[in-house]
Amino acid sequence: MSEPHSPVSRPLSSHLRIYEPLEAFSPKERERIKAGLLGKGGREDLDAAETDATLDRIVSGADDPFPPDGAEFTRALTVNGTTLYCPSQLVLRSGLAAESIISSAPRILAELMLPEEARERHQRRVDRIAAETASPRINTRESLWGIPFSWFVLFQESDPTEVVEEGDHVRTVRIVATWAKAIGRARFAVANLALAAPDMTMLDELTSLTEWLEQFHPDSVVELDYGRVADRVFPDESCLDVRLGIECLAEGDLTGAAAAYRRLASRWIPIRQLARAS
Known about the structure:
By secondary structure, the chain is of the alpha+beta class. It folds into two domains: 19-140, no CATH class; 144-278, no CATH class. The chain is built from eleven helices and seven strands. Helix 3 packs across helix 5 (116-131) and helix 7 crosses helix 10. It comes from Sinomonas humi. It holds the Pfam family DUF8083. This is DUF8083 domain-containing protein. InterPro entries: DUF8083.
């Protein structure tokens, strides 16, 4: 299935988000959360506004590519009558992304993309927001060109799922699970992989993911937002395949585990290869 036409070619991005109750945030964070809520429209409008703001910064030609203080957005989710919030935290996330670029990209390229003066200004923004934060945590994880298999561990096919369609295309798919279920599934998978496949890369990923989840309020909800990649894979059975693969490894069924991996690979490797396509 081909994706909807877009005037701007963008990487396929997916997100793992934690929605927390308002009491989990500091007073200053609550102010930013309320200011970041869009008065009208739904999630699609917010996603579009956030993307447009990012693209404007990229193409503006300004010497500061970082988001300003007022560029924050807030996503809200109502579960059983309680509204939970996921702040975009663009300033903090941009700071982390900049650190990654500086440490991994050639120095000349890094300086060209992220001028030192702009980095210093942004660091002051980061320091100010971090000082106002109840605890230093990032509510959103982003993945380009595919979804990490470890993310699927947190969800099951019986979890509430929203399919957002636009014409003949799937705009996104969102799966939600309570924090308690998600972290329980992650811990179960870590325990089984530690015994059955201690050298497996997914074990390290799941250990990091579990440590991340432990930072959040126990009344939180975890959301997997496929983004535009959903149009290429939905209907998707990756949650089931990942779970079956881990169960097969725990039972010593290497044939079953290999079959589950082949199903995952046939679905996701072609998407990851798009990152290198011209």
